Amino acid sequence: MAEDVRRFARLRTLCEGALELPEEQRSDWIARMCEGDEELIADVDELLRRIDEGGTLAELFNGPRR
Length: 66
What we know:
By secondary structure, the chain is an all-alpha fold. It has one domain.
């Protein structure tokens, strides 16, 4: 459980950091920050893809507004 909470917090931090960068710099930055953790890289990439499709960081982490 605690591991899930840490991973969730790390995913959010990585997404926030990536969104501050120009799109062309994100991939390299994410790879460096994830230190070779391919699963973490894939999860961050998926979240960013969902944001690019119109989602928001808040919706992804807190659920849709009602």
